[in-house]
């Protein structure tokens, strides 16, 4: 009886997380167990999410829960990546709030960063 319970619990709880670890690794991501658990819980195992996550983490270490929330809210990882590259080009520390807020407002981040630089880094939404 205990063996059956352990088998069912293991397959329901651990297998999806192990699957997330394997799927993320196939896209070049090295996740720990907690991160794989977050992706499983938030149902963020889509190909475009994992590729975008890898590309963003290559530039800047965003917290995973912020990126999953942003993605689930309809955010565009390609736009975030462009914004991170613009901040890097201007030798500025990326502003996570600015990137996610302006992206969800469907603004072009490269253009908005140029405007902010001209306005002494004051952001206008």
Given as residue ranges, the uncertain stretches (5+ residues, pLDDT < 50) are none
The global form is elongated
Radius of gyration: 18 Å
Number of domains: 2
With helices defined by DSSP (H or I, 4 residues minimum), what is the helix count? 7
- Average pLDDT metric: 87
CA distance, first residue to last residue: 60 Å
Percent helix range: over 70%
Blueprint (SSEs and pairs):
Layout: H1 2-26, H2 33-42, H3 47-59, H4 64-72, H5 77-89, H6 96-104, H7 109-118
Helix pairs in contact: 1-2, 2-4, 3-5, 5-7
Please tag this protein with its features.
mainly alpha; elongated; 125 residues; plasmid
Structure write-up:
With 125 residues, this protein is an all-alpha fold. It has two domains: 1-44, no CATH class; 46-125, no CATH class. Helices cover 71% and strands 0% of the residues. It contains seven helices and no strands. Helix 1 (2-26) crosses helix 2, helix 3 packs parallel to helix 5 and helix 5 runs parallel beside helix 7 (109-118). The longest helix is centred in the first third of the chain and has 25 residues, at 2-26. The mean pLDDT is 87.
């Amino acid at each position: 009886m205990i063996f059956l319970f352990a088998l069912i619990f293991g397959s329901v709880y651990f297998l999806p997380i192990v699957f997330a670890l394997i799927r993320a690794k196939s896209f070049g991501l090295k996740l720990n167990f907690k991160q794989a658990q977050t992706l499983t819980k938030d149902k963020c195992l889509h190909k475009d999410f994992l590729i975008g996550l890898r590309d963003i983490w290559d530039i800047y270490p965003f917290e995973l829960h912020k990126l999953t929330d942003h993605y689930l809210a309809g955010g565009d990882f390609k736009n975030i990546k462009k914004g991170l590259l613009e901040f890097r080009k201007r030798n500025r520390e990326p502003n996570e709030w600015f990137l996610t807020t302006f992206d969800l407002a469907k603004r072009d981040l490269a253009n908005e960063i140029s405007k902010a630089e001209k306005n002494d880094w004051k952001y206008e939404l």
